TrEMBL record:
<protein>
    <submittedName>
        <fullName>Uncharacterized protein</fullName>
    </submittedName>
</protein>
Length: 106
């Protein structure tokens, strides 16, 4: 499991190096992150993370989405998702979002 978590950390660092102006991004959770952060899968929902970068610190905020295809979200959408996910966690639940493309649910 450690190597899986390390791979995702390395991937986040590569993303940050490739897009140095991005502070937020979304991505599907790895198997190790699902076990460590979510604990279990939820039928019909995909475990994902909003990554919030502040310098060399990466905060990963869990949420569920209707699809794993979340990586193309803009910095603004990713930031809004991170904030909403944090607020949901404060209320004791994991945020669930419906992903849409051109007004159609995915």
């Amino acid at each position: 499991m450690h190597s899986d978590i390390q791979k995702t950390c390395d991937a986040d660092e590569r993303f940050a190096a490739r897009f140095p102006d991005r502070q937020f991004w979304l991505r599907p959770a790895s198997r190790g992150e699902v076990r460590e952060i979510f604990g279990r899968k939820v039928r019909g929902w995909h475990p994902c993370l909003a990554v919030w970068r502040e310098g060399d610190i990466y905060r990963k905020v869990p949420f569920f989405a209707t699809t794993r295809d979340v990586a193309d979200a803009s910095d603004g959408v990713s930031a809004e998702t991170a904030v909403n996910a944090i607020e949901s966690l404060r209320e004791g639940v994991v945020l669930r979002i419906l992903i849409t493309r051109s007004g159609r649910a995915l």
